[in-house]
Amino acid sequence: MPPYTATYFSVKGRLGAIKIMLADKGQELKEVHVTMEEWQKGDLKATCVFGQMPKLEDGDLVLFQSNAILRHLGRSHGAYGKDNREASLIDMMNDGVEDLRSKYIKLIYQEYDTGKEAYLKDLPNILCKFETFMAKSNSGFLVGKEVSFADYNLFDLMLNHLVLCPKSLDNFPKLSDLVKKMSARPKIRALLDSEAFKKIPINGNGKQ
Ligand code: 6SG
């Protein structure tokens, strides 16, 4: 199996969930960190399908779009449900995670100082949807009995929210359990505790 290569800014951002998933699946990842100066030259941007990163290389396959990358890895490493029905539910939940991630990114990059209070006020209305859905699967994962790419994505985003507001999961036992359970998986724990991972900021503008 050729090693994966990810190209991105030196932030967790949209690469965090991908890194967590690869670590948990015991896959090696080579990382290429791009500085803003390099990016602004435009040569790399011109080679990116949508002019954006992250980029993942899997052998001669070059992928952009973080959610397509998560799905690719889910397919390759048995983290996309046991059948079509589960796969469709996993897609649905991952789209829900993407909706929250987009709101989070907008808060961080566009309205951190003015919008944080309103964001945190509305957050429980979003988290309760995940909580209710997880109560149905009752396995500790979003869908079925096994971990999926959507679980890694939700876990990564919940870690960011615990930094944004340490109390944000207090009334959500299923989401709190997901964080506890994922954090305790040995390869994820090792990644989260590694100096290389800890020193990379969550976002590119110093806000978190
Ligand atoms: C930014 O938006 O890091 N990619 C980003 N920005 C550079 O020229 N739908 C796709 C996907 O899911 C969205 C990709 C995403 O993959 S990620 C990108 O390529 C561009 O558009 C968030 C992130 N932000 C850090 C950042 C880069 C430029 C402005 C903010 C680092 C921080 C400030 C300067 C350098 Fe900065």
Verbal overview:
With 208 residues, the protein is an alpha+beta fold. Helix content is 60%, strand content 10%. It is built from ten helices and four strands. β1, α1 (16-24) and β2 (29-34) form a beta-alpha-beta unit. The longest helix has 27 residues, at 84-110. S-[N-(ferrocenylmethyl)carbamoylmethyl]-glutathione binds at residues 9, 11, 13-14, 36, 45, 51-54, 65-67, 204-205.
Amount of helix? 55-70%
User: Biggest sheet, strands in spatial order?
Assistant: 2-1-3-4
Shape: globular
Number of helices: 10
Oligomer: single chain
The main β sheet shows up as:
4 strands, mixed
Structural class: alpha+beta
According to DSSP, the number of beta strands is 4
Order of helices and strands: EHEHHEEHHHHHHH
Beta percentage is: 5-15%
Q: Roughly what is the average pLDDT, rounded to an integer?
A: 97
Uncertain spans, ≥5 residues at pLDDT below 50?
A: none
Ligand inventory? S-[N-(ferrocenylmethyl)carbamoylmethyl]-glutathione
How large is the radius of gyration? 17 Å
Please give the alpha-carbon distance between the first and last residues: 36 Å
